[in-house]
Amino acid sequence: MLAAARNEHNPNLFTGFLNHAQDEYRHANIFVNLALRESQNSEPLRPNTQDVKHHGFIDTQKFLNQKLDREQFGVFIAVHEHLAVNEFNKLCKKLDSKKDIQAIKQIVEDEEPHARTILVDEKRHAQLALEWVDKNVKSVRRKVLFTYFYIIAKYNKLRGHAQMWATPLGKWIGIPLTVLVLVLFRPALNRFIITKISHLDHSLL
Amino acid sequence: MIFTIGISAYYHDSSVALFKNEHFVDFVKEEWISRVKGDQSFPHQSIQLLCKRWEINSTNIKAIVFYEKPLKSWLAIFKYCGQRPFHRYKLAMRKLSTFWTGAIFFRAEIETYFPSVKNKILYAEHHKAHAANALAFHRKRTEIQAKIFVLDGYGEGASGAIYDQNLLEIKRFHYPVSLGLFYSAITDYLGFEVNEGEFKVMGLASFGKPRYLSLLGEMIWYESGQLKIDESFFDYPSKPTNYFSQKALSSLPNLTNSKTKTDGVYADLAASAQSHLENLVIQIIADHVEPADQAMFLSGGIAMNVALVSKISQKFSSKKVFVPPSPGDSGSAFGAACMSIGLTQVQMDNSYFPGKRSVNFSQPRFVNTVKKTSDDIGLAAELLASGLPVAVLDDRMEFGPRALGATSILFHSTSESCFSEFNNQVKKREPFRPLAPICLSEIAKKYFRLTETDELLARTMSTLVKPTSRINDKYPGYVHVDNTCRLQIIDASDGLIGKILQDCLNRDCEILINTSLNIAGDPMVYDEVDALINMKRMGLKYISTNAGVYEII
What pLDDT is recorded for position A170? Predict the structure, then answer.
């Protein structure tokens, strides 16, 4: 997001990217602090900043906003923020249901406000990105891109780590994979792929 | 127009130094762009940026110099593994697993940007590049007899070397005997990140007593002109750079007894490591420096330890001690390029490079986030005098890891408690970390006891100085717990910071606190966007640039 802000000249988009980057820094802080705290009684956690490149979370050559065109980048954000909203929504519900369990009561009490804050941030990011995509990306291209990034995001989740987009291999696997999934599962995909802001579950936003 | 490019990469702090003819014109660390602290990958982003900025292509390049000989470095590890293959096979396997992404393929990577430059690619000797980096910053290097001590972690099968003023090698310390790796192992043991946390160990050392010197003396020692280690305390085979072994874990004191890092075992172990390092380096220097030597140059990662530099300058007070502004691996990108151009051609006047960082908050994109408060930078002094911290982003930039006033946060306070709040709330770093004072050269002697060497080293914040009683009366918070200050002195004519300090004098603010414009653990700020986000994260409101003072909305 910071790299996107650096290359952005439109004041509104620049502010949006900057605020988004600020939110992401805050979220990263919450997770790192949580991980450090929870690792105190076991083998101490040693976060290594180099791992973000080793594990493919960041491309070594170009940032995502340089690799993708503007429309692709907009849809990429929209898809991932929407998925993040879903994940944090599930997490908050889980925390609600675990409140009575004594062993994790303290963790739930400490972390629930963080999870809710992150959820609110992610909702805002998803909404803003979807609004931008609705206005700026043509319908057909929007659908294709949504499908593509959605499949890749799910594939990345299955792999456990690493952004496929951050590796040169990504496009060689990603494109045929998407075509294959589209051919085989098109009717099923149509049911749950979000292509417009109006398709989103409004209780989330 | 002919460019020479110096590159360091693949271990830590990847950097690119650029010379146009014989003039040092630009320098970019990969971490400034990627925002990954200590980024060690090939500096793709930096090269792309410099190519665009300076219109560099294959035809206008004179030479591309890499800061080490990759094959030599690679083979040295295998030679080491081959001596005890059953014990060290893990290290060999690790090196093999990174073969395709390592320095061996430097030429292939650089040719993606500059095709058909293979005849222009040069490989410098790693430690010689460090030494050249130190020499380039000294104006009278050709007129004096001197020794250059390069001490670091690892490079081309060695961990350090000693040269004379003509860069002729006198001695070499061979891997795995390494002062850098010893200090990193202790850094790791104390729970700090290797290659990043060493300066925290140095800061922490002031709070403890060196109670474990004899124990550390069993790990690494100097005997009959040779540095020796007991390898069983280190775990080189499973982790190729350093780190402690199970034996060290059972021998070193248990850290769980300390409630905080500044008391008990933590601080005592840090103090012992610091003291042991100082003793060893002083012994090495004493053995090699000759009565006729007028100066000694220190380079390599170890030379970033300002407490050590301070001890050396006290111990060898008859010699001038000199440390370059960026003695680590990123500075050796500069040193490697200097070697190609010829050291006699290169002349560095100060620790800043002209670069092309033109800071401009008046661009339309900043309209929602920043507003101009004043054209006059005098407002910055007024804000500082009223107790508010002010960020500074000069058009020129520091060369090296330290914020020397071009990318800084300035702060003025006579209250002692303000500083722990500043550390906690603004910088978000450990409370034991000292803050560095900055003042004009004409003020410095009023508040600090300075030798000629101190005055030189304090230009690049490379040493510790002793304060006079005056500073304890007026600025008690500026003094570290060991009664030292990591001072920086500059002239009033020295860029934006010089002007601000001059204005501050009229408001009874003689000494300011200078710290880097970033949250602890983040890379240095590079441009306006980085500055903006860091200021928002730290809650800072005002920033002074060459164009005036701006307020963050």
Answer: 65
Q: Quick one: tokens of A180?
A: 């294959």
What residues form DSSP beta bridges with A12?
none
Query: Which of B44, B45, B365 lies closest to A8 in CB terms?
Result: B365
Are B42 and A8 an interchain contact pair (Cβ–Cβ within 8 Å)?
Answer: no
Cβ neighbourhood burial of A176 (10 Å; 0-12, 13-18, 19+)? exposed
pLDDT in tens, B368-386: 888 888 878 888 999 999 9
Which residue of B lies nearest to A25 if distances are taken between CA atoms?
B537
Structure tokens given for B485? 């200050």
Given this model, what pLDDT does residue A105 score? 65
CA distance, residue B148 to nearest chain A CA (Å): 32
With CA atoms as reference, the chain A residue closest to B44 would be A61
Average pLDDT across chain B, whole number: 87
Cα distances (angstroms) measured from residue B397 to each of A203, B29, B348, B406: 50, 12, 14, 6
Task: Please give the C-alpha separations between residue B143 and each of A33, A128, B136, B166, in angstroms, as whole numbers.
Answer: 54, 65, 13, 11
Give the other-Cβ count within 10 Å of B86's Cβ: 6
Record: contact B369-A15, CB cut-off 8 A = yes
- More confident position, A14 or A30: A14
Residue A58 has pLDDT above 70, yes or no: yes
- Residue B124 above 90 pLDDT? yes
Geometric angle at alpha carbon B343, from B339 and B347, rounded to 5°: 125
- What single-letter amino acid sits at A88? F
Nearest-Cα distance to chain A for B244, in Å, is 14
* B 18-37 residues with CB < 8 A to A: 34-37
pLDDT at B6: 96
- B363 to A12: CB separation less than 8 angstroms, yes or no: no
Round the average pLDDT of chain A to a whole number and report it: 75
Residues paired with B515 in a beta bridge: B409
CB nearest to B36's CB, from A21, A53, A62: A53
In the three-class reduction of DSSP (H, G, I as helix; E, B as strand; rest coil), residue B513 is classed as: strand
Contact A6/B at CB under 8 A: yes
Bridge partners of B169, per DSSP, are B163
Pick the residue of A60, A65, A167 with the most B CBs within 10 A to test the interface with B by mutation: A60
Q: What is the mean pLDDT of residues B31-43?
A: 90
Q: Is pLDDT above 80 for B502?
A: yes
Give backbone dihedrals phi and psi of B351, rounded to 5 degrees, phi first: -90, 15
| Mean pLDDT of the region B461-490 | 87
Is B44 in contact with A60 (Cβ distance < 8 A)? yes
Higher pLDDT, A40 or B53: B53
Q: What are the pLDDT digits (tens) for B430-473?
A: 777 788 899 999 999 889 999 888 998 999 899 999 998 888 88
What ipTM was predicted for this assembly? 0.86
| pTM reported for the whole predicted model | 0.87
Residue B2 phi, psi (nearest 5): -130, 125
Cβ atoms within 10 Å of A50's Cβ, excluding its own: 16
* B414 or B382: which leads in pLDDT: B382
3-state class of A55 per DSSP? Answer: coil
A-chain residues near B364 (CB < 8 A): 9, 11
Q: Does A71 touch chain B (CB under 8 A)?
A: no
Query: Sign of the C-alpha dihedral, residues B420, B423, B428, B431?
Result: negative
Judge contact between B459 and B438, C-beta under 8 A.
no
DSSP state of B425: I
Amino acid A202: pLDDT:
44
Of the candidates B218, B229, B209, the residue with the CA atom closest to the CA atom of residue B269:
B209
Q: Best interface-test mutation with A: which of B12, B14, B34, B552 has the largest number of A CBs within 10 A? A: B34
Question: Which helix (H) or strand (E) element contains residue B393?
Answer: strand B390-393
